[in-house]
Amino acid sequence: MTRATCHDCRRPVLWTTTEAGKRLAVDPTPDPKGNAAVWRDGTGTLRSRRPTDELPLCGWERLHLPHVATCPTRVQQLALPAGVTSLAAHRRKKRR
Predict the structure, then answer these.
(1) What are phi and psi of 71, to 5 degrees?
(2) β-strands 23-26, 62-64: how paired?
(3) What is the DSSP letter of 76?
(4) Residue 59 carries which DSSP code?
(5) Taking the model in full, what pTM does it have?
(6) Which residues of 51-73 are buried (b: 16+ CB within 10 A; e: fewer)?
(7) What is the pLDDT of residue 33?
(8) Pairing status of strand 46-49 against strand 36-40
(9) Neighbours of 24 (CB within 10 A)
(10) What does the pLDDT look like over 56-71, one tens digit per residue?
(11) Sequence-separated (6 or more) residues with CB below 8 Å from residue 51
């Protein structure tokens, strides 16, 4: 198994290869809230992709959360600095 630890938080992660050939760290336990479909190919490599309406989750795939979404160190880094306002809520209202 391609198990390693996150350099920032030291939690275990699984390294997968995406359809684009990039590496993606995912949490090792499957999670139904995840957005990365993970499976092991014929060579034993862990692969991942994002399920879509056209190509939903297959029976041999399991949903995992990308580690960047759950890493406590990364989540703290993504917080906005003091005095900065997020426009996300405003943009959601505008699109309706």
Answers:
(1) -65, 120
(2) unpaired
(3) H
(4) T
(5) 0.73
(6) eeeeeeeeeebbbbbbbebbbee
(7) 94
(8) antiparallel
(9) 22
(10) 999 999 999 999 989 8
(11) 35, 37, 57, 61, 63
